[in-house]
Specification:
Layout: H1 7-20, H2 44-52, H3 71-83, H4 90-103, H5 106-118, E1 123-125, E2 140-145, E3 148-159, E4 166-172, E5 178-184, E6 190-196, E7 202-214, E8 218-219, H6 224-257, E9 259-260, E10 263-264, H7 269-300, H8 309-335, H9 346-360, H10 363-376
Parallel strand pairs: 1-4
Antiparallel strand pairs: 2-3, 3-7, 4-5, 5-8, 6-7, 9-10
Length: 380
């Protein structure tokens, strides 16, 4: 087996590092000191630089102006973005574009994907349902209405919805089928209400009242929503990994300089053991992330496995949701009171980590889902 990344994937990482090199994690007001959102929208100048470096079209086919790379390449770039807490809808935008490319009609792909690759169109997705705990596709109903569809329902905590041009909304038809609708943010009957994340970003609660959707903008492929859901989950694991690696690096640098009893605290056994445990967490997060990303691409290409790709995604989510929490908690502990100083960026990473943990959901739920998959697909 060859576990090295391809030249194209490594080139994407190098381009991302160059773009993110000048991004300051504390470039906006602290979420601990700011009521409401830390900023009105995402980082548009950074978005422009990502577009100029062709990173927004990384996963799009050449016919749409993209580079034709895969989920692993996207996760590598997301990992770099999380290291500096980059405030851009990179995950939601690229995952939605991938779902449209794989499952949408030629008409829909031609209408959205070239602009998405250039960054002139911004895409996002509603993935948290009505409460954040129920399946997102059950929160909205889609019914036939003349030549198109009508959507009714609600979606909560939709990231970057106020800034997006198009929003992917999962829905159910009442017959057990999940569909995926692409809605313009200005669609009649679509109302956005402000919500705020733990990290201080502006989210939106979507209320849909008879929103009309033409056939061309609704993807009936039964695998479209599941594919997008798994892409979003895997990308969130990549964000958790990048954030955790930055936090452990900060902790290593701090404990290497902070002295107690005349010695750097990093030389104390109790400190070294805790840091080592968190390093193990990060390596487990990394290997399960690449397994999930690889399986997603293999499944899209028609390759099977002993379990559906949802099993690999569940394992990655188990490690990411638990691991990112343990990494930031240990970092706060080893920094002492300095970790809570709002002039030091660790508290921002802690807030972002908590938001990612909430998005991923509890590890126990993913363990139960994995158990159900194992029961339904006995390993011979």
């Amino acid at each position: 087996m060859d576990f090295t990344f391809t030249e194209e994937q490594q080139a994407a990482v190098e381009a991302a590092r160059a773009v993110f090199a000048d991004v300051a994690p504390d470039g906006v007001p602290s979420p601990a000191l700011t009521p409401g959102a830390v900023a009105d929208g995402f980082d548009r100048p950074l978005w422009g630089r990502l577009a100029a470096c062709d990173l927004l079209g990384l996963v799009l086919a050449e016919e749409h102006g993209g580079a034709g790379l895969d989920t692993i390449a996207l996760c590598l770039v997301l990992r770099e973005a999380a290291r500096v807490l980059a405030r851009v809808p990179l995950l939601e935008h690229c995952a939605t574009a991938m779902a449209v490319q794989a499952h949408g009609s030629r008409e829909l792909a031609a209408a959205l994907l070239p602009g998405a690759g250039r960054g002139s169109l911004v895409l996002t997705a509603a993935a948290h349902g009505r409460t954040g705990h129920d399946p997102a596709e059950l929160a909205v109903t889609a019914r036939r209405d003349g030549a198109g569809w009508a959507l009714d329902g609600m979606q909560t905590a939709v990231p970057w919805a106020h800034d997006a041009d198009w929003i992917a909304v999962p829905a159910h038809t009442g017959e057990g089928d999940a569909v995926l609708a692409l809605l313009p943010r200005t669609a009649q009957g679509l109302v956005l209400a402000d919500q705020y994340s733990t990290s201080g970003e502006r989210l939106a609660e979507l209320t849909l009242s008879g929103v009309r959707v033409p056939d061309a903008h609704l993807i009936e492929d039964r695998g479209a929503w599941e594919h997008l859901r798994q892409l979003l989950a895997t990308g969130t694991c990549a964000l958790a990994l990048g954030l955790g690696e930055s936090v452990l690096t900060m902790t290593s640098q701090y404990t290497g300089k902070r002295e107690q009893f005349g010695f750097p605290v990093a030389t104390f056994q109790a400190v070294a053991v805790q840091a080592a445990d968190r390093y193990i967490d990060l390596r487990a997060m990394e290997v399960t992330l690449w397994q999930a990303a690889w399986r997603l691409d293999a499944a899209t290409g028609g390759a099977g496995g002993p379990l559906p790709s949802a099993g690999d995604v569940a394992v990655a989510k188990i490690w990411a949701s638990e691991g990112v929490r343990r990494v930031v908690q240990t970092a706060q502990h080893l920094h002492g009171g300095f970790g809570a100083d709002t002039d030091y960026p660790l508290h921002r990473y802690h807030a972002w980590a908590k938001q990612l943990e909430l998005q991923l959901g509890p590890a126990a739920a993913h363990e139960e889902a994995l158990g159900d998959l194992l029961a339904a697909h006995p390993l011979g």
